[in-house]
Specification:
Oxidized Rhodanese, domain 1, globular, disordered N terminus, five-stranded parallel beta sheet, disordered C terminus
């Protein structure tokens, strides 16, 4: 394992050097490469190592139209609890292990995950794996769109799936999750210094837009709104913005690197993206993702909420 990790570090270092030396890559598109983010030219994407897996984290329909060579298809629906009256909540560790094993992934794998939305969906899978102590997972910066723009090959061939057994470690889940009960205690406490970030759009935050799945519009009290999409070159390359810009964007929360920051959105997807930015790119140490997010909160009529508008549009 030590040798394998060393080889992986060498591969990532090579990718970083390649990014810096690639004259075709404009400065604004330089990849923010760290331990969980890779560029379109990463060696991981062209490796013959059978333990390296590429996951297309989009709908089956999108995957069928074309994907990275060798990529398998998984999506959010594969990892959500269907026993609840609302959608989006994560499945438990054992069910997740079962889903990963079905598509031939083992705990020895190194995974690269991508989508076509600026890594919001891919971040959801990263966060779930991170929660359950699986760390060999990387996001493809810019996703499939940037990959294709930079000359990457698109395939419709589907790799053969050999179901196997995936085993998470016996370690307790990482402390990167907060429940609605604990969140309620924090927002009711005058002594709490925790900072609550709403990663949804301004319209959702203000209660002017009711996204499907929620029971009512509005926001959790004491929350600050920073739309997750501010962190990416949205509508263009869909890559993460340079570190200096990210520092400025999230500097609005006025938090130290040690402060407790809680992030939520609609169903824990966009908040996973913001969690990735804060922890992996900006090095904030204590970030908690509220998995239930606004959907779960809105279904509990006894929980406090705020809204600035009575004009609601359903989708």
């Amino acid at each position: 394992m030590i040798l394998r990790n060393s080889l992986l570090l060498i591969m990532l270092a090579t990718a970083l050097i390649s990014c810096k030396e690639n004259s075709k890559l404009p400065p604004q598109e330089e990849v923010l490469l760290n331990s969980h983010l890779v560029s379109y030219d990463s060696p991981l994407l062209n490796s013959t190592d059978a333990t390296i897996g590429i996951i297309d984290f989009r709908s089956q329909e999108a995957y069928d139209k074309g994907h990275l060579p060798g990529a398998i298809n998984l999506y959010r629906n594969d990892f959500q609890d269907t026993t609840l009256p609302y959608k989006g909540m994560r499945i438990n560790k054992s069910l997740m292990a079962e889903q990963l094993g079905k598509v031939g992934i083992t705990e020895k794998a190194t995974l690269v995950v991508y989508d076509d939305k600026g890594s919001s969906d891919a971040s959801r899978l990263w966060w779930l794996l991170h929660l359950y102590n699986f760390e060999q997972v990387y996001l493809l910066d810019g996703g499939i769109g940037h990959w294709e723009k930079m000359g990457g090959t698109i395939s419709r061939n589907k790799p053969k799936i050999n179901p196997t057994i995936f085993r998470f470690t016996d370690q307790p889940d990482k402390p990167v999750l907060i429940t609605k009960e604990n969140l309620l205690r924090l927002i009711k406490s005058d002594a709490s210094r925790a900072i609550l970030v709403d990663a949804r759009s301004k319209e959702e935050y203000e209660g002017r837009y009711l996204k499907a799945g929620a029971k009512k519009a509005g926001r959790i009290p004491k929350s600050i709104n920073i739309d997750w999409a501010e962190a990416v070159d949205y509508g263009n390359t869909y890559t993460f913005k340079p570190l200096a810009e990210l520092e400025k964007i999230y500097g609005r929360i006025a938090a130290s690197r040690e402060d407790t920051i809680i992030v939520y959105c609609h169903t824990g997807v966009r908040s996973s993206h913001t969690t990735f930015v804060l922890t992996q790119l900006l090095d904030y140490k204590n970030v908690l993702n509220y998995d239930g997010s606004w959907v779960e909160w809105s279904y509990n009529d006894d929980l406090p909420f705020e809204t600035e508008s009575i004009t609601i549009v359903k989708n």
